Amino acid sequence: MSEPELEIKEIAFNKAIFLQLETLSQARNFWPIVYILNDGTLREAYVGETTDLLARMATHLSNGEKSRLTEAHFITSNRFNKSATLDIESNLIKYIAADGKFRLLNCNVGLSNHNYYQKQWYWELFKDIWSRLRGLGIARHSIKDIDNSALFKYSPYKSLTKDQKRGIILILQMLLNPYKRNIVLEGGAGTGKTVLALFLFKLLHTPLEEFNFATFGEYEEKILDLTRAVKGKYPDPQMALVVPMTSFRATLTRVFKNVKGLKPSMVVGPSDIAKKHFDIIIVDEAHRLRWRKSLTNYLSFDTASRQLGFDKHRHTELDWVLKQSDKTVLFYDKEQSIKPADVPAEQFTSLKARSDTIVTPLVSQLRVKGGNDYVSFVHRLLHTQLPKEYGRFYSKRYILRLCNSIEELIQHVKQHDDESSLSRMIAGFSWPWRSKTNPMQADIEIEGKWLKWNVTNSDWINSANAVNEVGCIHTTQGYDLNFAGIILGKEISYNEKTNEIVILKQHYYDSNGKKGVEDDAELKEYIIHIYKTLLLRAIEGCYVYVVDDKLRAYFEKHLPYIEPQPNEASDPADTIADKSILRIPLYNLQAAAGAFSNEQQVDNVDTVPLPSKYKSTEGLFACAVVGESMNKVIPNGSICLFRRDDGGSRNGKIVLVELTDMQDPDSGSYYTVKEYHSTKNTTPEGWQHATITLKPLTHAEGYKVIKLTGNEAKNLRVIGLFEQVL
């Protein structure tokens, strides 16, 4: 490919611009052009792309808001095409919004073809464009710095996944439904809960005519109609984003400050909502809402309870939210509740069971590059559910390594921080925080190496000396890292005889984390939640150091070391399992239907070991099954073995099926796992299904039988027959 003729031309933005544009050949020939309008005094900018530049500039000059801008920069290249300029426009919106020099007048991210020809080549071109814009004073920060910034990670200028778009639809429908007051969106770490919360704020605070609904793709018309109706009902919505954690709240406040239409005052703590009633309250990290049990500072809690007329001993911050809003949106993950002051899961269970509450899952993994396979592995590792045949975890997309020494962990974290920034060490609360009262004293001693806990609680992740300190759950929950060094402390061990994680509470020093906890099983649950949350903080990979010898021996079975150990294979491909163990493909239920075809290349998916009782892999595959609809047989998050369906009777069997006209509420996809039953009609021409019934097998309430007739039954596709949980 020849070198692109890239040019950025600066022209004053006023009515005289048309004479100069006539000399621009790309404008005369209707060639795709990307442009930036800005004003240094107002600190405002607008990004666009067009093939009819003259007409577009005339439109902007007649627009009251954009006509105040004074400079125009036109980006041209002989290699531009429509897909490329749409993508460059979208990237400029995302990066200029997060750069912070200008406040964008754009209302959303614009259109972008995610899979156009030579997209990677145009990304390299974009990096060249960005460097030139920095030289022209349009941008300040490097792409690397912006990628690691909170303004970029939590910006509402994002393209949503299908999972998130469906979430938006359900939220908007709930806001319009007079019989529904609440929606609970359940998603684990990294499923895009915070971005969705901010996107909703931006959507409802942007004039309808300024928002580009084409970014929603196939959902464009539906979301446009719903948004129009919601704006008719709430023309000036009184909204609050409740963020229970102080540090994360401060971070999101800064994000709101830099987004047009949003105000920092919209981000509040739980006690702030006692001051007024709201149309809509959105709660991010709702699992961290509190009750009075085990709080060390009761004053603000007691004051808010009194203002709202609640009994401070019986009611919780969740009760406050429900009272102070007409409509409530809660982003919730039971497994990120980490201490006894968090609202008990039973209260959320009661809320979800109410007739005026909608419950929906968020399942797409947007943070960890290891995807849901890695998330499932971490869950099963910490709950000792991995089969002996599993071997060691390996992913082509994610680095997970066990460190031989604490020095090795420190070295790798600092190396990654030098290369890509935002790499941090995090530990369980297994050492007292001595430096809190004596800054000259270290806190953590491992193998003769002394380390200090985080010196600040506020936005520690981004603080100056963070790479040399050790954070904890309270300073990292809600944040993204590139790499993490996770230290499992003295408080967590392993019993080989019972195959159980055990907690040594005498080594657990989070006083608020164990205050009032009399049940050892409850404390264990909190600590398991903490380590699961920590192990899901990093985008690219985790390095793990285990203090306890017994737990280390257990982890050695399932995590590969950084360096080969004696009698251990040096080829990373050999660390996943013994070569003699047969392996089968592990598919994601959110994949396209083609993922289950016979032509699917196993090299393109992860694999899991096949139990030794199976002598052949023919027709066998595995899937992660999420949700509680089959929990009598299949625990939530289990990896299950299936055999491809070759016909024959399926009555009474558990099957994996593809639905054509509905989505499974657990997986959020068009696939579901249920017990299969059918009835048939016999005719002279043969037989056909009269009804197909898909039955949940669950202890949980709210799951209904799926009954299909007619074309729905005819078009149902059975993918596989359930064999066992792996």
UniProtKB/TrEMBL annotation:
Residues 30-104 form the GIY-YIG domain. InterPro entries: GIY-YIG_endonuc (IPR000305), LexA-like (IPR039418), LexA/Signal_pep-like_sf (IPR036286), P-loop_NTPase (IPR027417), Peptidase_S24_S26A/B/C (IPR015927), SLFN_3-like_DNA/RNA_helicase (IPR018647). It holds the Pfam family SLFN-g3_helicase. PROSITE patterns: GIY_YIG. This is GIY-YIG domain-containing protein.
